[in-house]
Amino acid sequence: MTFVDTHSHLYRESYPDNLEEVVQRAVAAGVDKMILGCVNQDTPAQIQEAVALFPQNMYALVGLHPEDTKEDWEAQLESLKNHLDDKQVVGIGEIGLDYYWDRTYEEQQKEVFFRQLCWARDLGLPLSLHIRSAYPDAIAILKQFRPGELSGVMHCFSGGTQEAEWAVNHNFAIGVGGTVTFKNSKVQDIVAHVGLENIVLETDAPYLAPVPHRGKPNESAYIPFIAQKVADIFQVSLQTVADVTTENAYRIFTKLTR
Ligand code: NI
User: Fold this and answer.
1) Which residues surround ligand 1, an ion (CB under 5 A)?
2) Residue 258 forms part of a structural domain
């Protein structure tokens, strides 16, 4: 049984003491492909180190995170642009809008989001979207593109049923992580609503560990806990969840190698 962790941050900065062990535990748990999210111009060097250590297992995203969008956003984008051809790059992310903590750079966030969507369109790369407390604005920007020009994953999905429907009708899968295992999580209803064929698994490690590790550092090795919750929702086997979500991940991230 194998899994793809479609969004994690498995690099030295997150695991200064035990990166190698964390990745080895993931592979031992069947999570043999991990896609590493990029947040700012300092991330590609971190990702390249991880890719060099585990070239069979690690894949990269390139992007400026909405929370890292500040005064220097233009320089950040210029720097990140140079990494679009880096080894193992399979998509653009994590990009989007986040109004949850701070709306100071709301206009810059929108501009940065739009420009990076243009990268994805021009290069034919899928997206890993980070959207929090900003679904209406994010969807308005996505709507500026023609149908079929964009595709990818709504990472750590936290929207409602309508937004989930919009996503799956516009080539976006729903990224399901540790929050689905939390008691009374509304993500469970979203998962049931969109169906297994529209779901990919992710950890966002080291953040958002699933039950029974909630509150502790997350690892890609915990993907099976998330998968088991999804299996319970659909009343199917863990094997079925592994098979379908892995195929979904390969369908979206076409540069991922088997
Ligand atoms: Ni992330």
Assistant:
1) 37, 204
2) no
